[in-house]
Amino acid sequence: MKLKDMEILAKGSILFSLKKTISPKIITILYLLGLAAMFLFAISHFVASFSLGFVEGIWGLLEIAVFGLFGFITLRIFCEAIIIYFKSHADIITDTESTITKKSLIDDVRDAIEELAQDEKRKNPPAPEQIVSTPAPKKTTRAKKPVKKPLAKKTTIKKTSEKSTK
Asked: How far apart are CA 46 and CA 43, in angstroms?
């Protein structure tokens, strides 16, 4: 992290705005501060242990090596774990950033209406088309005139004798 970045971080509105994530930058700063603290511990322990005597000074060097290595590894693992956590959740952060930076209230309302419509479609999917059988149209026939049946002819049996006599 450069001095210019730290100046922007300290003076700008980055600390008071949620539009950008600053956690990875802060983790880098914490890592550098941890290394500086371990270095200062090593120097102060070195001076203090040799002020007590030569044997105590050698023992102090051993303590610096063991605790310094343990502290360095612990600090490194801790900072890397936090950075990996933030990188794995970067898609959530970008989603949050995109919802924060909407252009206007109209866009928000439009998005909300579209979401409601999509939710409604998911709840009530359209029914598959059903084959609706419509009754066949009725044949319109003209009223038929009643047909008069011809009367049956009366057949009379004439007696043959009468025909022959005439």
From this structure: 5
Residue 81, C-beta contacts closer than 8 angstroms, at least 6 positions apart: none
**46, 32 Cβ separation under 8 angstroms:** no
Cα separation, 119 vs 40, whole angstroms:
59
CA–CA gap between residue 5 and residue 20 (Å, rounded): 14
Q: Which residues of the chain have pLDDT under 70?
A: 1, 6, 8-21, 93-103, 125-166
Whole-number pLDDT of residue 31: 93
Taking CA atoms, 164 is separated from 15, 91, 108, 154, in Å, by 143, 127, 119, 22
Angle at 126 between CA 122 and CA 132, to 5 degrees: 165
- Which residues, 6+ apart, have CB-to-CB distance to 64 below 8 Å? 41, 42, 45, 46
Residue 14, C-beta contacts closer than 8 angstroms, at least 6 positions apart:
8, 20, 22
Residue 89's pLDDT is 76
